[in-house]
Amino acid sequence: MDAVAETTTGRDWPLDIYNTLKSFDVRQVCYVPDAGHSRLINLSHQDKDIQTTVLTTEEEGVALCAGAWLGGNRSALLMQSSGVGNCVNMLSLMNSCRLPLLTIVTMRGEWAEFNPWQIPMGSATQGAFELMGVTVFRIHNAEEAGDVVSNAASLAFEGDQQVAVLISQRMIGRKKWTSK
């Protein structure tokens, strides 16, 4: 069984986010596979100028982003809200060392959620980031995706800040299970 996101809008907001990442010269994108990010992940894989890394756990992505910055590259970490709890300890590295972090998080546990296991972390995601000193922006509709990510990237890369962009589950849509 595979999960697929059933998008709720006709606008290609993953393309808007991809174009924004390109305009900020993001050279590395790391992620734990997620249906909500699948279009953005595919666009990143197709770009010869972006190094993509599949993670086994989200906190590896925080470390990868630190290493990318120290090596002279800008990066973005893609994850689902259920993985945010895995990163709390590693977020202290970014804050203590004043290293930029741009993470884009697809939300679960909010809109038409079928999996009760997703609800607790979905409810705690924003607070967990804020407790660790991460600035949180939210994307509520597809039309604002590029602008919100642009402002987040500017704050992260030009201000050496840690920024999370939360993409509303309503925007991603209902998850459906399909058989191959």
Q: What does this protein look like?
A:
The protein is an alpha/beta fold. It has one domain: Thiamin diphosphate (ThDP)-binding fold, Pyr/PP domains (Rossmann fold), CATH 3.40.50.970. Helices cover 41% and strands 24% of the residues. The chain is built from 7 helices and 8 strands; from the N terminus they run βαβαβαβαβαβαβαβ. The strands form 2 sheets. Strands 3-2-4-5-7-6 form a 6-stranded parallel β-sheet, with helices on both faces. A two-stranded antiparallel ribbon has the order 1-8. α6 links the parallel β6 (135-139) and β7.
Which secondary structure elements does this structure contain, and how are they paired or packed?
Elements: E1 2-6, H1 13-23, E2 26-31, H2 38-46, E3 51-54, H3 58-70, E4 74-80, H4 88-96, E5 101-106, H5 119-131, E6 135-139, H6 145-159, E7 162-167, H7 169-172, E8 174-178
Parallel strand pairs: 2-3, 2-4, 4-5, 5-7, 6-7
Antiparallel strand pairs: 1-8
Helix pairs in contact: 1-2, 1-6, 3-4
